[in-house]
UniProtKB/TrEMBL annotation:
Residues 6-185 form the NAD(P)-binding domain. Signal peptide: none annotated. CDD domains: TMR_SDR_a. It holds the Pfam family NAD_binding_10. This is NAD(P)-dependent oxidoreductase.
């Protein structure tokens, strides 16, 4: 039995799809906060169980009979260390053979403010005594392709990433990596630094958007404060806008650079190019 937490999210759904290519649906448990909203997962034949990171009892019930667990990090920033600790405690009670966790690239040295909660979770995993694997995921290319429509509308793609080199990968490549780890024997304590095969700066990314769309759009680099204010002006809550601006400044310092190619080695093929991700996004 393989349990995927956060299975209703974008990454979780992709992991379930990859698992279904290799094992029967009866061996997969989709752990979701709200089963009512996950009818699509139930239709795939997998078991859908209720599991709220804020409700330890629900986690204990959801993990009954679990052999392996993929803990997909929560998106509730600021609450994640406690939420993930609750998942690890329930996994321990269930005596799982392995727990894999989606962390962030180079969590132990990353300048990103958001790395703190990931590092706390990694430490909790190590302290748990459970066999574990850490999937330190770099940025999803979709983080940037999502901004293409707004950039085309304003002829400008804004950020604070400077000339920082980014080795992002498509969400589906990280999902394939997680599924591969869940489906194969693991060495406890393995830490994967997962990132795309190619690197680009945001200016290069935006030039490719201009080339493929045939529209005038360029990258405009802002200071951290200006970028945070612009994101807030676009409707993002202040703390989230501040975190994103901090992340972009981290990018300028190389926080998302990686050339280890561990992701493509793990999944057995090259990662999707950023140019292909842009093409897919422009096709809508
Ligand atoms: N590498 C990157 O570039 C990047 C970018 C963004 C996020 N992330 C991290 O990677 C994770 C997965 O990415 P994603 O794209 O799949 O994010 P997503 O689509 O936002 O999915 C987040 C998942 O977390 C679940 N969740 C949130 N709070 C929960 C709770 N209290 N109990 C149970 N489940 C809870 C959500 O459940 P509901 O469906 O019920 O809301 C959802 O299934 C994110 O949560 C975040 O930690 C990484």
């Amino acid at each position: 039995m393989i349990v995927v937490t956060g299975a209703s999210g974008q990454l979780g759904k992709l992991v379930i799809q990859f698992l279904l290519e290799k094992i029967p649906a009866s061996g997969i448990i989709a752990a979701v906060r709200n089963p009512e909203k996950s009818k699509d997962l139930a239709e795939l034949g997998v078991q859908v169980r209720q599991a709220d990171y804020n409700d330890p009892a629900s986690l204990t019930t959801a993990f009954k009979g679990a052999e392996k667990i993929l803990l997909i990090s929560s998106n509730e920033i600021g609450q994640r260390a406690a939420q993930h600790s609750a998942v690890i405690a329930a996994a321990k009670q269930a005596e799982v053979k392995v727990i894999a966790y989606t962390s962030v690239l180079k969590a132990d040295t990353s300048p990103l403010a958001l790395a703190g909660e990931h590092l706390e979770t990694e430490q909790a995993l190590k302290a748990s005594g459970l066999p574990f694997v850490i999937l330190r995921n770099g940025w999803y290319t979709e983080n940037y392709t999502a901004s293409i429509p707004a950039a085309l509308a304003h002829n400008a793609f804004i950020g604070s990433a400077g000339d920082g080199k980014i080795a992002s990968a498509a969400r589906k490549d990280y999902a394939a990596a997680a599924a591969t780890v869940l489906l194969n024997p693991v060495i406890s304590g393995t830490i994967y630094e997962l990132a795309g095969d190619e690197t680009y700066t945001l200016a290069e990314f935006v030039n490719e958007v201009a080339k493929q769309s045939g529209k005038a759009v360029s990258y405009v680099n802002l200071s951290q404060d200006e970028f945070a204010a612009a994101l807030e002006g676009a409707g993002l809550p202040k703390p989230f806008a501040a975190l994103l601006a901090d992340s972009d400044v981290g990018v300028s310092k190389g926080a998302l650079f990686d050339d280890s190619h561990q992701l493509s080695k793990l999944i057995g093929h090259s990662t999707q190019s950023y140019s292909d991700s842009i093409k897919i996004a422009l096709q809508g």
